[in-house]
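Hi P.,

Sorry for the delay on this. The queue was packed all week, but I finally got your sequence through. Input first:
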Amino acid sequence: MNSQLLARALGTVGPEALQRAQLSRRLDAIQAVPGIRFNGHGSKVLDDSSHQDGTQEKAASEGRAHQAGVNSITIDRFEGGADASIKVWDLERSEDPRQDYMNYPTAAVKKSSSSHQYGITHLSFYPFDSMAFLSSSFDHTLKMYATETMTASATFDLDSVVYSHSLSPIADHLLVACATQHSAVRLVDLRSGASAHSLAGHQRAVLSVAWSPHEEYILASGSSDGTVRLWDIRRSANGLGVLDMEDAVGIVGEDGLGKNARNRDQGKAHTNAVNGVVWTDDGNYLVTVGHDERVRVWDMSTGANALSHFGPIIKNTHLSTLLPLLVPRHVLAAGRQVMFYPNQREIFMFDLFEGTLLKRLRVPGIPLAPVQGRIAQANIRSRITSLAWRAGLVDLYSAHSDGAIRTWSPRTQDDLLAENEEADRPEGSEEENRKRKRDALDEVFRDLTKQKITFA
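Then the structure:
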């Protein structure tokens, strides 16, 4: 770090490059912070009657966010549980990973006649205003909530289980794409309240959808039929084609980039159900995950399989949507792309393009003994269900089927040295510590002013 600061002082390294280097270094040092926990049963926003139940008291003592498991988390502030509830947490209260802290929810949407009746499947913030957020559920509905009042301002009944949804971060059309038990992608218009528009093409249930972060009318969807389809909602025939895992060249067209190329309508992205579709933040690549226990990376300029190989350690057997987390580019050194993959009870950190395993993040206190059989694997109690990245920091949060939310933060060698210095410092009052720091600065200033400086 000192060499990089010196290079910056000499002008050989720009501020952006220094920032990327430091953030990348901190990313490599990320690890579990077991002292920060989320207790969803001890807050004043919950009824006092909830504490009369012995099972809830037990959950509180274990620091569980939801008794029945956490299905989805999203940051700014929300996460949703398998018990049909949504809770709000203030992450600013636990910024120092060196200090143990118990988070309690500051607000909650509890089960009622106007809320979801079954478990939450997916949560997302309204991208243009954090005062609203969307939630989907096994109860066949998509709901929009007002953040201030925590009440549903709109409800859309889609007549089938809604596995996930996506709202474009750049578009003006305000269409929410919904992946449902139906074989067609459903589009909900937040302006008109209509939900009749569908994108037909898949043969079985749609499990994941994602809008392009750079092309506002382009949508990707993954289905239990093993296909990943691309859509342009402006066209009368919406389908742009499918991705084919056997194609490592892609559709190059007249200019080598797909111009005037004929659509591909045959081929599969995975040999089994596709339950995760995620774009890189520059829109150049698409990442898909499937029940064939493969992660594939696609070059979206041509639709070619980039042939990234992540080895045989990938596990993916649960029907619910499984979304890998792609680290934002501003955190990484130029040309680098990192993926966090929720692999049942641990998180794998991969180089996205090389497929190299960079790190294994294991949940403290949970043994990793082998589990026999696909059914047993799919029902692991502590399975990681969702990952969320906290913007502006190198912090990762994971949701678990045992009801816990866990925090992952960097702990570099510099952090360890600072902790050791603080531990070795004799105890004293805060005023004494401030006085000691002022005396040290005064001594440095006196030493500098005593030196004779000669200008040649």
